[in-house]
Design a protein that fits this description.
Sodium channel, nonvoltage-gated 1 alpha, sodium channel activity, sodium, ENaC
Length: about 140
């Protein structure tokens, strides 16, 4: 049996046909932005390629109009509810609500029978008038 030489027909059949030149994409295929001829075509492209659940059902059931109408109403209702929730959230956020809780717990203290010097650098005689004014303001505020 003779060996297979280059250009032999049996060798070409064993390896398969030679690869052809790659097809050059058309100008429309090369475009970065895809333009659609109508809104219906754009909507079909959106529904076929989006990751939103249920959107494909709006264009895939062309034979059953009732099913398409049901999915359209359901889809519009869910988007409406989503936008309603966004409106509520933004309204709450931009109203700048402030919550303020203040609890004052104070018990009456028994005045001690023995007074201890506090080593306070202020003399009582010098601040007596200020303390009396503070006491008056405090009484007016509390009582």
């Amino acid at each position: 049996m003779q060996g297979l030489g280059k250009g032999d027909k049996r060798e070409e059949q064993a390896l398969g046909p030679e690869p052809s030149e790659p097809r050059q994409p058309t100008e429309e295929e090369e475009a970065l932005i895809e333009f659609h001829r109508s809104y219906r075509e754009l909507f079909q492209f959106f529904c076929n390629n989006t990751t939103i659940h249920g959107a494909i059902r709006l264009v895939c059931s062309k034979h059953n109009r009732m099913k398409t109408a049901f999915w359209a109403v359901l889809w519009l209702c869910t988007f409406g509810m989503m936008y309603w929730q966004f409106a509520l959230l933004f309204e709450e956020y931009f109203s700048y609500p402030v919550s303020l809780n203040i609890n004052l717990n104070s018990d009456k203290l028994v005045f001690p029978a023995v007074t201890v010097c506090t080593l306070n650098p202020y003399r009582y005689t010098e601040i007596k008038e200020d303390l009396e004014e503070l006491d008056r303001i405090t009484e007016q505020t509390l009582f």
